[in-house]
Write a structure and sequence with these properties.
2 domains, 7-stranded mixed beta sheet, 27% helix, 9 helices, 3-stranded antiparallel beta sheet, alpha/beta, Spore Coat Polysaccharide Biosynthesis Protein SpsA, Chain A, 244 residues
């Protein structure tokens, strides 16, 4: 598992008195386990609000609290597997359930549906056409459909679901609240009919494909099987029912 450590020293949101940190102007520090060193807190995980003086100067015309909130806004991409469904009405139902999509990827193996699928996504999401990708699958094993869709992923979170399924209500709001308000660790989230994960993690583990380890051996495991080898598996893999 990727490890992070953040030192509050140098952060513009560190509340300092007489040269010693006493808190955080964003009220984040009390949400972390922390140690104290050289008069400042150190947390053993990533803080997505850590900003330095250079950032403050570059954004001097903006309210720093509003600016950091905008920058921390979750980028969420969706991938819909249309293969095996071929029902455009069910597909539309799925698209309508997408909450705050930054982009959408559709996996399909029947080109006669491409135009209609694209039109449905554009109509229901109002996304620019450059943020909609229809992926044509040819002679690919089903376990690699997600990997093919991920070729179009961007930084942030990626959500994989099948055509005909719908996402829970307040999907984006609950995810954003868990990450940016409660400061919870959400690396992978398992829902009843979807898989949500950090794009960087999927890329780091090379998805569902085989990969060569440091000792030269080949690891033939799926993405979720690779994660199960982490010591802190239970902390990084969540169930959607646990997301407040």
């Amino acid at each position: 598992m990727l490890k992070f450590e953040v030192h509050c020293k140098g952060c513009v949101f560190a509340e300092v008195k007489d040269g010693l940190q006493i808190g955080c102007y964003l009220k984040n520090i009390q949400k972390f386990e922390k140690t104290y060193e050289d008069g400042y807190f150190i947390i053993n995980r990533r803080c997505n609000s850590h900003r330095d003086q250079k950032w403050l100067k570059e954004n001097k015309d903006d309210n720093p609290y509003e600016r950091v909130g905008q920058e921390n806004r979750i980028r969420l991409g969706y991938a819909i597997n249309f293969i095996g469904s071929y029902d455009e009405d069910l597909f539309e139902k799925t698209v309508k359930s997408l909450d705050n999509p930054s982009y959408v990827v559709v996996v399909n193996d029947r080109p006669e549906h491409n135009k209609k699928l694209f039109e449905i996504v554009q109509k229901e999401t109002k996304l620019h056409q450059t943020r909609i990708n229809i992926i044509q699958i040819i002679n690919q094993k089903e376990e690699y459909y997600l990997d093919e869709a991920f070729r179009n992923a961007k930084n942030g979170f990626f959500c994989w679901l099948k055509s005909g399924d719908t996402l829970p209500r307040r999907f984006y709001e609950r995810l954003d609240n868990a990450i940016n308000v409660n400061m919870e660790v959400v690396s992978v989230c398992l829902g009843d009919n979807f898989l949500l994960f950090q794009s960087t993690l999927f890329k780091h583990l090379e998805g569902n494909k085989s990969r060569m380890l440091e000792d030269g051996s080949i690891e033939n495991k799926t993405f979720l099987e690779k994660i199960k080898t982490f010591e802190d598996y239970e902390k990084c893999v969540r169930k959607w029912s646990d997301i407040s």
